[in-house]
Design a protein that fits this description.
Low-confidence stretches: 1-10, 83-104, 115-137, 141-156, 236-244, 551-564
Strand content: 25-35%
Oligomer: single chain
CATH topology of the largest domain: Glucose Permease (Domain IIA)
CATH architecture of the largest domain: Distorted Sandwich
Mean pLDDT: 74
Largest sheet: 10 strands, antiparallel
CATH class of the largest domain: Mainly Beta
Number of helices: 11
CATH superfamily of the largest domain: Glucose Permease (Domain IIA)
Number of strands: 27
Radius of gyration: 49 Å
Length: 564
């Protein structure tokens, strides 16, 4: 018997032998005492049951049976270890007990038996990691025994790096965070998305509840991405009796817009909490200009102006410029607006237009953004006159005038008839705006007009919008609307040959030509408001001079100062 991991001394070996001998004596004493008590018990029982004459014979028989049962039990316990020589060594640390099955090798068995009584350490070279064990045995037997060391394993083989790597690979993988991005599909709820991703139903409920405190899940739209973080569990645990889920949700996050991040995280007690994180952006100024060869949309985009800025410019000038008839090749534009940048100085969001210039037919139209107070900002020309008029000239963006006001041959009926409005051809779904402030008097299907909206304005004015594909959310009879508010979308319902907007203006019940109508203008700045406006104009002019004049917004410079 050899202990391959401890240093053994002769004293400790003797102590172990003494302990083994003591244990053996104690066992035989217990057997002897039990047998003696059993004999007395059977003797007493025999006297009572058989009388004085027969108790001796009966007791002898019962005692013999008891001893036979005890012997059979001991044999059954010892039988599995027949032919196996075992030994244990006492050491400073808990030793490994080595069992060497001798089998039919009688010589090896006798050699091991003599070795158990004669083990003593000879050399312990800790520096080399070599432990040599000498045996008090005959020279012939000792010559056949080997020494054991890490360099010459002998009786044992140490684990190699490959063995350790294979054993480590067989162990369950450690848990770790796993990130996954999922997208909302049409008709899906957030609960359904989480459960489809493998989140427990109860965890899904509590995570959605924590999110609701900062953002309503009902506002989620198809295509919205949600980032999920799981603590992945090993497969061995996932399939165990504990029922631990394979995916354990620890966090979820979504960005409703570029400026906000809604995050839900799991607490130490298993509950969830939500928070709203506002992204920090710097705001700078961007300037761009170009020449119109086709349209403001196409040439503005070619110059690098973002689409939302082009749309804002069209709304700014829609009260005074007819983009379908007045814009000619060679007209020019210039725009100065704010843009938000992230920490890497990359543009992430367009801001407000602070100045725009549009040259139409040699006439320059300049507008500045200004707030006289109370947040009621507007665009004003150089004289302080608001660009807003009582009604918009064209309540639609980027449309082409396809039919004017007056007598014409009806394209479906085939005879001449008064066309009591103007038609703007545009792709299906193009937004339609309320031409002015007012109250909706009709929003339903109306005969040959198809889907139809009418709005009552002040001073006896009324506007009508026909052939709509559909109505904007909340638009119905009795709804108050603001100028420029979306009320519906271009379609081809009713008696129509293609998607377009039929637009009418009624004054005291009489249908008028919307393009020739002279409508009241908006407010005009005076006194202190006009002085403040002129001061802001000078500030914007200075800022624009500091920014490089470029034709591509992608190359435009941005100042680090915030917009005023």
């Amino acid at each position: 018997m050899y202990d391959t991991g401890t240093h053994v001394t002769k004293d400790t070996s003797r102590i172990a032998d003494a302990q083994d001998q003591s244990a053996s004596d104690t066992l035989w004493r217990r057997v002897h005492r039990s047998a003696k008590l059993s004999f007395k018990l059977y003797a007493s029982a025999s006297r009572l049951a058989l009388g004085q004459s027969r108790w001796i014979a009966a007791s002898a028989v019962l005692c013999t049976l008891s001893l036979g049962l005890v012997g059979a039990g001991i044999a059954a316990l010892v039988a599995p270890y027949e032919g196996v020589a075992t030994a244990s060594l006492t050491a400073d640390r808990a030793p490994r007990v080595v069992a060497w099955s001798a089998g039919d090798d009688k010589e090896a068995a006798s050699q091991l038996a003599s070795a158990e009584k004669a083990i003593r350490p000879a050399t312990d070279n800790a520096a080399s990691g070599r432990v040599v064990i000498e045996l008090d045995a005959p020279a012939e037997e000792a010559a056949e025994l080997k020494t054991a060391s890490l360099g010459d394993p002998g009786l044992f083989d140490p684990l190699t790096e490959e063995d350790l790597a294979s054993e480590a690979a067989a162990l369950p993988a450690e848990t770790g965070p796993v990130e996954q991005r999922v997208a909302i599909e049409s008709g899906q709820t957030l609960m359904e998305v989480l459960q489809s991703a493998g989140v427990d139903r109860i965890d899904s409920y509590h995570a959605v509840a924590a999110l609701t405190t900062h953002y309503s899940p009902r506002k989620l739209r198809a295509g919205q991405e949600i980032a999920l973080t799981f603590m992945e569990q090993p497969d061995a645990l996932a399939d165990g009796e504990s029922g631990t889920p394979a995916k354990y949700l620890t966090a979820l996050a979504l960005e409703p817009d570029l400026e906000r991040l809604i995050e839900v995280t799991r607490n130490d007690d298993g509950s969830f909490k939500g928070r709203e994180i506002m992204h920090e952006f710097t705001e700078g100024y961007v300037r761009a200009s170009g020449t119109i060869d086709n349209s403001l949309f196409l040439d503005g985009e070619r110059a690098g102006v973002p689409m939302q800025i082009i749309a804002e410019m069209i709304r700014m000038y829609s009260y005074s410029v007819d983009f379908q008839r007045e814009i000619q090749p060679g007209d020019k534009f210039e725009v100065y607006f704010t843009r938000k940048f992230d920490q890497s100085n990359r543009p992430v969001k367009e801001g407000d237009v602070h100045y725009a210039s549009l040259t139409v037919g040699g006439k320059v139209h300049k507008l500045w953004r200004f707030d006289p107070g109370h947040g009621e900002w507007d665009y004003f020309d150089e004289n302080g006159q608001s660009m807003k008029k009582f009604l918009m000239k064209t309540p639609i963006d980027g449309a082409r005038l396809s039919s004017g006001y007056g007598m014409r041959k009806h394209p479906i009926l085939g005879y001449s008839k008064l066309h009591a409005g103007v038609d703007f051809a545009a792709p299906r779904g193009t937004p339609i705006y309320a031409a002015g402030d007012g109250t909706v008097t009709r929003a339903n299907y109306f005969g040959s007009y198809g889907n139809y909206v009418s709005i009552r304005h002040a001073n006896g004015y009324e506007t009508a919008y026909a052939h709509l594909n559909g109505f904007a959310r909340g638009i119905k009879s009795g709804t108050r609307v603001r100028q420029g508010q979306v009320i519906g979308y271009v379609g081809t319902t009713g008696r129509s040959t293609g998607p377009h907007l039929h637009y009418e203006v009624h004054v005291n019940g009489k249908k008028m030509n919307p393009l020739a109508l002279k409508v009241p203008t908006g407010r005009k700045l005076e006194g202190r408001e006009l002085a403040n406006f002129k001061a802001q104009r000078e500030t914007i002019a200075t800022q624009m001079a500091a920014a490089p004049a470029v034709t591509k917004v992608a190359q435009a410079g941005a100042t680090a100062s915030g917009a005023n």
